[in-house]
Amino acid sequence: MPLRRGGTDPAFRITPDGAVWRASRTPAGPATLRITGSPAALEGHAWGPGADWLLDAMPGMLGAHDDPSAFAPRHRVVHASHRRNPGLRLTRTGLVLEALIPAVLEQKVTTIEAYRAWKLLLFQHGEPAPGPAPADRMRVMPDARGWARVPSWDWHCAGVDNKRASTVMRAVRLGARIDALAALEPAEASRRLQSVPGIGPWTAAETVQRSHGAADEVTVGDLHLPHHIGFALTGERRSDDETMLALLEPYAGQRHRAARLIVLGAPSPPRRGPRLAPNPPSWRS
Predict the structure, then answer these.
(1) Of 194, 235, 227, whose CA–CA distance to 75 is shortest?
(2) 22: phi then psi, degrees, rounded to nearest 5
(3) CA 177, CA 96: separation in Å to the nearest integer?
(4) What is the SS3 assignment for 146?
(5) Given a cut of 70, is residue 135 above it in pLDDT?
(6) Which of 171, 177, 222 minimizes the C-alpha distance to 201?
(7) Of 199, 194, 130, 128, which is closest to residue 163 (Cα–Cα)?
(8) What is the mean pLDDT of residues 49-71?
(9) CA 29 to chain CA centroid, nearest Å
(10) Taking Cα atoms as reference points, which of 96, 121, 101 lies closest to residue 26?
(11) Where in the sequence does UniProt note compositional bias of the Pro residues kind (predicted)?
(12) Is the pTM of this model over 0.90?
């Protein structure tokens, strides 16, 4: 679930009845979306000032605007994963800042640390999700002004170093100009995002994959992805970005989709060392 930032994401819930709840900051204001039904017949209900906007965006979020017809598996492992995941669609939220901020929080830290930071910051500085959100525990992320008012101590307590916090501050100062990138082609949106200091190819790719449903934006600079793809396609345990991009070249135009299918369907290389341990919370240091 690329839109879920961990099992305790305050902006995303799956309730026991199978309903999917998502709280978003839309251009029209905060909103909560509830999706029910089966893959063949989904139904959405929304609350809040941005309810209509979120309902209009729901088909794109569910992959209705994604066109996988141009994709042709060229490796056995990709073909097998494609066959096992026939319903895979790339999400397109149209919300660039919403995808960008958690991507910045994930820069060069463990996933556990990034998810913890997102959770703490939303509970401290977000607002309650509109409507009958489950257990009153869902939060909408702050608007640009809200992010700008987060004090340095709260970034510190959430385990976010000054470099990442400063990158978020630079992004939110651009405010609506960032979300306006949703109207551009993914490659151009990525290029403009990278003009903001602190946003590199990794962060830009992770953002436009979600905001634009970008089928060809590959996450370069990742610690694990090159090894996973290299091992799946060549059997070699070690790989790098250059090798990964060369291996994905037969999927030009669909490289992100191919990478997603490999991650979904192929085992990662065996680990030869301990996992990277997350840093302790800043208030304990």
Answers:
(1) 235
(2) -140, 130
(3) 10
(4) helix
(5) no
(6) 222
(7) 199
(8) 95
(9) 20
(10) 96
(11) 267-285
(12) yes
